[in-house]
Amino acid sequence: MLTDAQLERYSRHLILKEVGLAGQEKLLAARVLIVGAGGLGAPAALYLAAAGIGTIGVVDADAVDLTNLQRQVIHHTPDVGKEKVLSAAEKMRAINPDITVNTHPVFLRTDNIMPILADYDFVIDGTDNFAAKFLINDACHFAGKPYVHGGILRFEGQMITVLPGQTTCLRCVFGGPPPPDAVPSCSQAGVLGVLAGVLGTLQATEALKRALGLGTLLTDALLKYNALDLSFRRLTLRRNPRCPLCGDAPTITELRDEAPPACDLKSDCCC
Length: 271
What we know:
Blueprint: H1 4-9, H2 11-14, H3 20-29, E1 31-35, H4 41-51, E2 55-59, H5 84-95, E3 100-104, H6 113-117, E4 122-125, H7 130-143, E5 147-153, E6 156-162, H8 170-174, H9 186-189, H10 193-212, E7 221-226, E8 231-236
Parallel strand pairs: 1-2, 1-4, 2-3, 4-5
Antiparallel strand pairs: 5-6, 6-7, 7-8
Helix pairs in contact: 4-5, 4-10
């Protein structure tokens, strides 16, 4: 039962007939994991906290750097040097004391990702580290956890939502990570700061829709966004029967490392 203060806080949700009291209670019961408290994770975390997602986990093992502040809006100048998960949690709790924020100040690896995923029902991938992205994709597949992938670079972004065993996964489309140094990171090629806000809030939208059971998720489709001409392109995808993970004869049957430890989740790999 919502308190009087919660009825007022969430009033703009409650007057939506598609949400209402029952929908807000679903949000308060939802558990979302955000991997990466960087450019994508920052707006996603702020909006999910404001919306009343009851439990939000944040994974990041890095500290706030001055270069992050151009796009990672959950962190402020006084936070430089502070652990990102702590900085993010402070802002989320300040926005909404109703929620629980779990901090995971770790590098995601094959030996720790599954226990972390177990506590959540939806995952937001806010990294641009290819090794981490495919680790998240594979772990969500084995755990049966739906998740939304997102990536940004320079003036463009892309995203796809995956329902394991039902829809196109990241490996169906890309197979695996590109060779080392084949694709520059944000720290090498740059990124328009506001781009992270656009994609991060879209990822948060998918999490809210999933929790509410509303609308159509971005499954079996890759959404591409170009900030320079403000265009969105939706590319239809199909599950690949030869996918090494979810295809008819999978060759990936357990989690594996795709890259050396140097490619772990660090600040320059979190958009």
